[in-house]
Amino acid sequence: MENRKKNVLSAIQPTGDLHLGNYFGAVKNWVAIQEKYNAVYGVVNYHTMTMPYKAANLQEATWKMIFMVMACGVKVENLFIQSLIPEHAELTWIFGCTCSYGELARMTQFKDKGEQLKEGDKEAFVSAGLFYYPVLQAADILIYHADLVPVGKDQEQHLELSRNIAARFNRQFNKEYFVHPEPLYTETPKVLSLADPTRKMSKSLGEKHYVNLFGDADRIRKQVRSAVTDTGERNDVMSAGVSNLFELLKACEKHDIRQSLLDDYSSGALKYADLKEAVVEALIELTQPLKENLAAIQADKRM
Ligand code: AMP
Questions:
Q1: For the segment 58-103, what is each residue's pLDDT rounded down to a tens digit?
Q2: Residue 239: left if φ>0, alpha if ψ -120 to 50, beta else—which one?
Q3: Which SS3 state, helix, strand or coil, does residue 135 take?
Q4: Any atom of ligand 1 within 6 Å of the Cβ of 199
């Protein structure tokens, strides 16, 4: 095997604000691995069109996402915008003829997202694009000859499809052209909603459920101070809300203060207000420089 850096491909949709879950669960890892690998990261705006979206905002949201991930430390030379590279769409067509209708119909994300759309509205528009998007995803991955793709459990099936498409294409064209991408498992925390720690932090749950990475310090303070700590679990196990606050301290690499508060928890002396203040401080320390980076990038007229 030749001694070269492996190619890594990862992507994010430009769906508006970046929240703590996106940062700790994805973007921070992008920054961490971008030297070790030959990393390519995409803002995949065609994927955003598969679910309801605001057409007039998509262009601005795409660039904002580029600026936000740059502010987090992702190098600009590692970034691409999907819609600016026509080969993504072209290869999607070719790959669409390389996989079967049945394969796509078995994708659980299509079923889940389709049902999610229909939950609130029985007549909801489930686009053909939503059905087809794993093919576009295969094009995103294979076009860059990605050896590795950081994935969560929910994306494993799509990666398997990408491998099947690569194998079928290579067989059909009698050439080992496309690489078979493998999952890259990295340990990333699952950040829960502060307002309802039984659920994952997500924008789709509504404003109070996510902490905007670039939001103002007062709002972060308020959100953390009002975080739900007791969710009615057994009191001999740490509640999801308290555990989530400890996880945030760990994600912010505040290991000493976390350990000291954990000791307080074990001895029964922990005041939740102290835990929350430690989280507030850690988050403000984390987000302040990122906000400054973003302001500088947006003020740069060359961008
Ligand atoms: P999304 O916008 O939900 O597609 O998320 C973009 C990226 O952020 C994906 O890699 C997700 O796995 C990650 N992510 C989103 N929400 C969370 C969360 N609450 N905790 C950890 N990672 C998350």
A1: 999 999 999 999 999 999 999 999 999 999 999 999 999 999 999 9
A2: beta
A3: helix
A4: no
Distance CA 163, CA 181 (A): 6
pLDDT at 238: 92
Quick one: pLDDT band at residue 244, thresholds 50, 70, 90?
Answer: very high
Catalytic residue flag (residue 203)? yes
Is 201 near ligand 1, meaning CB less than 6 Å away?
Answer: yes
Asked whether the whole model's pTM tops 0.90, one would answer yes
- Residue type at 75 in one-letter notation: K
pLDDT score of 212 more than 70: yes
Alpha carbon of 56 to ligand 1 centroid (Å): 24
Atom of ligand 1 nearest to the CA of 204: 3
* pLDDT band (50, 70, 90) for residue 242: very high
User: Could you tell me which of 209, 207, 248 has the C-alpha nearest to residue 23?
Assistant: 248
How far is 16 from 276, CA to CA, in rounded Å? 27
- CA-to-CA distance for 219 and 151, rounded, in angstroms? 31
Is 271 a known active-site residue? no
Active site residue 113: yes
Query: Which amino acid, 161?
Result: L
Whether 75 is in the pocket of ligand 1, judged by its Cβ within 6 Å, is no
Q: Is the CB of 155 under 6 A from ligand 1?
A: no
Amino acid 204: pLDDT? 84
Q: Compute the distance from residue 146 Cα to the ligand 1 centre, in Å.
A: 21
HSE, side-chain direction, 13 A CA sphere, residue 171: 9
List the domains of the chain with CATH numbers: 7-184 (3.40.50.620), 203-302 (1.10.240.10)
Contacts (Cβ under 8 Å, ≥6 apart) of 51: 113, 117, 130
